[in-house]
Design a protein that fits this description.
Layout: H1 2-15, E1 17-20, H2 26-42, H3 60-66, H4 69-79, E2 83-93, E3 101-104, E4 112-113, E5 118-123, E6 134-136, E7 148-150, E8 160-162, E9 172-173, E10 181-184, E11 190-192, E12 201-210, E13 214-215, E14 226-229
Antiparallel strand pairs: 1-10, 2-12, 2-14, 3-11, 4-13, 5-10, 5-12, 6-9, 6-11, 7-8
Length: 259
């Protein structure tokens, strides 16, 4: 395991991303799939690409998922033992109509000081070029943060992109199976194409910060700020949600969240 950890860190340092295979068991991934469908039923006004930050802290299964020790153990390799959640976002691109994500750097948008943060991208579905998988530009994390611009008329998940030209010949398709996790740096240039296939493409982004990184957005506490492991550090946090049968998605171990 130590050798694998060193290899993963070398990939991350050189390329700005790394892949961990078979992180979560099939049962938990299935529950995540059920969770996405449940969220879409409860929030019919939201698209599958718009299940995010303000929904997280009041949802016991969502908090259970992002606080899974297997995910936190990966995050700890990159940011240390004191871990908080900054934000989380399902992007479930529906068949044929799933939108693109334009080229961007996450660090251009986030209210964090310093910008010490790591993103885990958990595959709920198989993710490949045919259904609009994540694409990255290896090594681009070594560049500074670029300005962003709006893209009028672009049918995309976010209507903004980096204002620098991206050499797409360098792009790498991140192909993942359900339960795999991709980890990337806040400065890496990344995006994804539209889903023109008959298969949904769903992934969960999880943005972990060390508790020494301050969330500067107002009001506080930030809607999805949660202490997940270790010392609380410099932020205020939302309380752990309490599971209520009939109000929340049932899941394995839900009884432990009822008190």
């Amino acid at each position: 395991m130590f050798i694998l950890a060193v290899m993963d860190m070398r990939e991350y340092d050189s390329d700005g991303y790394a892949i961990f295979r078979d992180v979560l068991d099939a049962g938990l991934v299935q529950e995540a799939d059920e969770h996405v469908r449940w969220l879409q039923e409860r929030h019919p006004g939201r698209s599958g690409e718009d299940l995010s930050t303000e929904l997280v802290a009041k949802d016991p299964f969502w908090v259970r998922l992002v606080s899974d020790d297997r995910l936190l153990d990966i995050a700890e390799r990159f940011i240390g033992p004191d871990i908080a959640l900054f934000a989380s976002h399902y992007i479930a691109k529906p068949p044929y109509t799933g939108k693109a994500v334009l080229w961007h750097q996450d660090g251009a948008f986030w209210p964090l000081e310093p910008m010490k943060v790591v993103t885990l991208w958990l595959a709920v579905d198989r993710s490949g070029p045919e259904n609009g998988c994540l694409r990255v530009i290896p090594g681009s994390h070594r560049e500074g943060i670029h300005k962003v611009r709006e893209r009028d008329g672009e049918d995309a998940v976010f209507g903004v992109e980096s204002d620098v030209a991206v050499d797409e010949s360098r792009a790498v398709d991140v192909i993942l199976e359900p339960g795999d996790v991709e980890v990337h740096h806040p400065n890496i240039m990344h995006g994804s194409n539209a889903n023109n296939s008959p298969n949904r493409r769903c992934g969960l982004t999880i943005r972990y910060i060390p508790t020494s990184t301050r969330i500067t957005a107002e009001p506080l506490p930030f809607p999805s700020a949660l202490l997940l492991r270790g010392e609380p550090g410099v932020n205020e946090y939302q309380p752990r949600p309490r599971y209520v049968a009939g109000e929340h998605l049932p899941f394995r171990g839900a009884e432990d969240w009822a008190a």
